[in-house]
Amino acid sequence: MTSDAPADLSPEFLAELVESVGVGVGVYGRDGRYVYVNQSYADLFGVEPAELVGTSLWEVVPGIEASKFDSYWTSFADDETRTDETIHAYNDSEVPVATVTTRRSIDGTAYHFGTIKDISERRDREREVARQNERLEDFASVVSHDLRNPLNVAQGYLDLLREDVDRDELRLVDNALDRMAVLISELLELAQSDSEVGETAPVSIGAVAEEAWRNVDTPEAVLDTPDGNPRLVADESRLLQLFENLFRNAIEHAGPDTHVTVGVGSDGFHVADTGPGIPPGKRDRVFETGYTTDERGTGFGLSIVQQIVTGHGWTIRVTEGSDGGARFDIDGVEFVAE
Fold first, then answer.
1. 217: Cβ–Cβ under 8 A, 6 or more apart, which residues?
2. Which helix (H) or strand (E) holds 106?
3. Which of 170, 192, 214 delimits the end of a domain?
4. d(Cα 294, Cα 287) in Å, to the nearest integer?
5. Would the pTM of this model clear 0.70, i.e. be above it?
6. Backbone angles phi, psi at 72, to 5 degrees
């Protein structure tokens, strides 16, 4: 049998191949000194590769102490691979990196081969997300206290006034205050929500849907849940929140006497109503924060649904139900066999 592989790969070819991977590469031996680094790695510190060759690992990786290098080296088994996120520092530059280090032996001599990837941009994004979360927490505090308190005072005075005065204008004021209360609640919910979910466990989709239905004002509407007792793996409290928001959306847009169905398929479940549905041109926008086609709505409920779906690793899409109403399909769900 013959091979099409070249019989001899020149050092120049190998060096070009290593550079093509687009990440830093470093190789060091038993004494902890680099015997090879590529240009991508040297570029992290603004130097040439030759300057790093012969440099000890602990001069570049502050997390590894010279006195503990022997223990670090002997802790590796042949062909073992480890991943880590750390800081590499040299030439007055500090770079957060993700590393993959593998022990390999060549002609009986062991080396550590490592790839080093700059993760500065990811760390910057993480810090920005942390700052945004802190601002959201501050906002949630304002919503919860500084807005709700005066609203409650206004509602209290309105209730007292209505005991002595019977005018349609007071009903309009009451409706406006109710609207503000809903807006504040959903703003707070949105500010405190994220794409994270808590502990997941098998839960009954029918039982959670029925509990959510009881939590929503649906005196004239009808709910159908799946036959049997299909169970899926989910964070039960977040799934409850998902159903509550989808049910409120159905009541707001399809009317108080709509018929809502929760059904299951091989890969997920759906919530459908018998209302007018959502035009195809608007289906991509319904999950945008603040977008609504109903002047009574806030546009936050479906954004929260999207967060919950994403947190579980599911997907959601809007289609048309069998009765022409809106249908929300959630796919990628893990069901538990009975």
1. 251
2. strand 93-106
3. 192
4. 14
5. no
6. -65, -45
123, 126, 128, 129 alpha-carbon torsion, rounded to 10°:
170
| Same domain as 58, residue 25 | yes
Range of the structural domain that residue 162 is part of: 123-192
Report the domain count for the chain: 3
Closest residue by Cα to residue 14 from 118, 105, 113, 110: 113
Q: What is the pLDDT of residues 58-88, one digit of tens each?
A: 999 999 999 999 999 999 999 999 999 999 9
Tokens of 8: 């001899």
| DSSP bridge pairs for 102 | 81, 113
* Structural domain contains residue 5: no
The C-alpha atoms of residue 62 and residue 280 are separated, in whole angstroms, by 56
Rounded CA-CA distance 300/246 in Å is: 11
Same domain, 160 and 83: no
Shared domain for 177 and 50, answered yes or no, is: no
Any domain includes 4: no
Element (H, E) at 249: helix 236-254
- Give the residue among 212, 205, 197, 222 at the shortest CA–CA distance from 244: 212
CA gap 209, 239 in Å, rounded: 9
CATH number of the domain at 71, please: 3.30.450.20
Q: Which two tokens stand for residue 48?
A: 């040439």
Neighbours of 31 (CB within 10 A): 11
- The answer to whether residues 246 and 221 touch, using CB atoms and an 8 Å cutoff, is no
How far apart are the C-alpha atoms of 75 and 256, rounded to whole Å? Answer: 67
Sheet containing 109-118: give its strands across: 34-37, 24-28, 109-118, 93-106, 81-90
CATH number of the domain that residue 137 is part of: 1.10.287
Q: What is the pLDDT of residues 86-101, one digit of tens each?
A: 999 999 999 999 999 9
Going by the DSSP 8-state scheme, the letter that residue 21 receives in this structure is: T
Query: Residue ranges of the chain with pLDDT lower than 50?
Result: 1-7, 9, 289-291, 295-298
